[in-house]
Amino acid sequence: MDELDPEVLSRRQQAMWHPWKADDMTRGLLGQLVGLAMMAASWSEMSSQVTVRGELTWLNLGVVGLLVCGVSNTIWLLQGRRNVGTARVLVLPDPQPRNDAAAVAGPDARVVVKAPGVTMYHRPGCPLIAGKPTVARGARHGRVPCQVCQA
Q1: Which residues contact 99 (CB under 8 A, 6 or more apart)?
Q2: Which of 6, 14, 75, 112 could cross-link with 121 by S-S, CB 3.0 to 4.6 Å?
Q3: Residue 117 — φ and ψ, nearest 5°?
Q4: pLDDT in tens, 13-71
């Protein structure tokens, strides 16, 4: 009787999640069918025309049919993307705020890092000096901040 257990049903429902619902699929398919019908009618009627002027009229209908297909596909894909984004927000936890030295130090930090041969000063969490031997200093000693630390 595990099939009636609410936890099992909940897991099964989550596993069967799809980015598009039935009405999204119906609208997308309907848009594609309308666009394809317009292109088929254009092709059929254009092939029986004798003059270029007559062909251009039907060519316009074919181009509109192609646009209908493109818009229909775009709307369908955007709806799927929106549904995936909503599911991602519901499933994934909220990101934890960063608590590294650069975030704590702030823009007016008194602690700067100096490395040998470097003409600029850096904050403790600056990625430009990651992995380099550094020395923490309390003053800036006339150096200018790097562009990453300045931003």
Answers
A1: none
A2: 112
A3: 80, 5
A4: 555 667 888 888 999 999 999 999 999 999 999 999 888 988 998 999 999 999 999 99
* The residue to which tokens 């025309």 are assigned: 49
Q: Which two tokens stand for residue 93?
A: 């936890």
Find how far residue 12's CA is from the centre of its chain: 27
Residue 140 contacts residue 118 (beta carbons within 8 Å):
no
SS3 content of the chain, % helix, strand, coil (to 5): 60, 5, 30
Per domain, the residue ranges of the chain are 2-91, 101-150
Question: What are the strands, taking DSSP E only, across the chain?
Answer: 112-114, 120-121, 135-137, 144-145
Parallel, antiparallel or unpaired: strands 135-137 and 112-114: antiparallel
The pair of structure tokens assigned to 138 is 């309390």
Q: What residues does 145 pair with on adjacent strands?
A: 121
